[in-house]
Amino acid sequence: MSNKRLPARGRANPPVVAEKLQKLLAGVGLGSRREVEGWIAAGRVAVNGEVAHLGQRATSADRIQVDGTNVSLRQSPAPQVIVLNKRKGVVCSRKDEEGRPTVFDELPRLRSGRWVSIGRLDMQTTGLLLVTSDGALAHKMMHPSTGLDREYAVRINLQLEDQQIEQLRAGVIVEGERLRFSDIRFYDGSSRNFWYHVVLMEGKNREVRRLFESAGATVSRLKRVRYGPVILPSWLKERQWAYLSAEDQSALYGLLKLPYAAPKQAPTRRGGHVAKASCLLPYPELAARR
């Protein structure tokens, strides 16, 4: 009997692993996993001609449709990340029922997939907003278990006492919910304009404003200046945006332990340019922060 192995072409193909439907669709940039879960719950997604359900798994061999349109599950080999300096008066929703302008109105079109915002800022808040074509990156950065913090510059109408600052660090109960800053520091100010820098771990709805209101202060300006290791560069003016460089993207994906395929060339699409300097700060290993 021969001991020779069969040639590679004689072996069976490896099995295709089924993944959760929201992970598949987010992975090709159609939206964040949370958005896709909403589509599934609303009956907008079908698999092989049948309406999908939450928790359903699928593979690239299945026929998947969103709103009756077939979806290609080919993963983009070159994810893109945009750093945007959001202006006041625009919303982070893809479409607004009241017809207000959205941040997506000012972004370049993608050949395939769609832009996904990494977290949101309310209409009155300005500053750093990250937008990506990679739903997996958006999900990883937004998930609380990842441990990315957010930093804001805040202007209020009074200077806080040391005891009030310590209380905001320790946590307060607001409308039955425990809120706290992981850090808060006085920056500058006089008269009725005092600037503070605060850090949050999750960024719940109106959390910064609600915390300062609990101390008797009113927020007159709120600007996000950092999301995890990504900072808002000083040269990026309001309403402007830039592509994160391939080097920064590679470092960001490495920090999050996500696979990364570098683009073959820098983006050259309408209205944008690659960031002229790094937008990343040194950041602790995430495993050590859990």
Tell me briefly what this model is.
The chain has three domains: 19-70, Structural Genomics Hypothetical 15.5 Kd Protein In mrcA-pckA Intergenic Region, Chain A (Roll), CATH 3.10.290; 81-146 and 230-289, Alpha-Beta Plaits; 150-227, Pseudouridine synthase. 18% of the residues lie in helices and 25% in strands.
Describe this structure in words.
The chain has 290 residues and is of the alpha+beta class. The chain has helices spanning 21-27, 33-41, 135-142, 162-170, 207-214, 246-256, and strands spanning 19-20, 45-47, 50-51, 57-58, 64-66, 69-70, 81-86, 116-118, 126-132, 150-156, 172-174, 177-179, 183-190, 193-200, 219-227, 230-231, 241-243. Helix 1 (21-27) crosses helix 2 (33-41) and helix 1 crosses helix 3. The protein is globular, with a radius of gyration of 22 Å. It starts with 18 loop residues before the first strand and ends in a 34-residue tail after the last helix.
Distance between the termini: 57 Å
Beta fraction: 25-35%
Order of helices and strands: EHHEEEEEEEEHEHEEEEHEEEH
What's the architecture of the largest domain in CATH terms?
Answer: 2-Layer Sandwich
Question: Can you tag this structure with a few keywords?
Answer:
290 residues, alpha+beta, Structural Genomics Hypothetical 15.5 Kd Protein In mrcA-pckA Intergenic Region, Chain A, Alpha-Beta Plaits, Pseudouridine synthase, nine-stranded mixed beta sheet, four-stranded antiparallel beta sheet, 6 helices, globular, disordered N terminus
